[in-house]
Amino acid sequence: MWILSNQIEIQNAQILLSNTLNNLQLKTVQVKLGHKGANYPSLIAYCNAYDIWFTIGSKFQGSGSANQIYRYWNAFGVGDPKPNSSIPIIVEINCPCDGIYRTLGGAFAEDDQGEHYLCHRGRIGGGRKGIGLNLFMQQFGNRLQTVQDGNITSQVFVIGQIKSSNFPQLLTDFVKDIAAIK
Q: Is the dihedral of CA 94, 155, 35, 17 positive or negative?
């Protein structure tokens, strides 16, 4: 398995992710997404069957010294949000639009059969001390897989094969596991 780096391949994997999730039975809700100090009006999709919400696929450029990298914004949370309420993002699985950027939490991978996977590198935030890569590794270290990551190998958490019928449940389990440690 290897991490995708080609812009078209990444775009196709993002479209596959969007289509897979948007094919679930969803309702849309206008909310305010955010973190300490800021929130933004957002339209999210809520799936009652899995009790998670998401907003996926928006392209944006990071700010500050963290990255000026264009990425796909894939944000997830749990519970059925009330319209216009402020809700916290549990986890972002942001994938670069082109290339390999190990500073981002998300990545798409492909296997020898051409199947695509959603992966997470363990970069989580929580707005308080102790929430981050070290906590992620403590909780999920035994579930990491080695992948070819450009010119090196890396350990990533493979959330699941995107076209798999159990992908929504695997993604839900990941989001809820992150919520539990935050």
A: positive
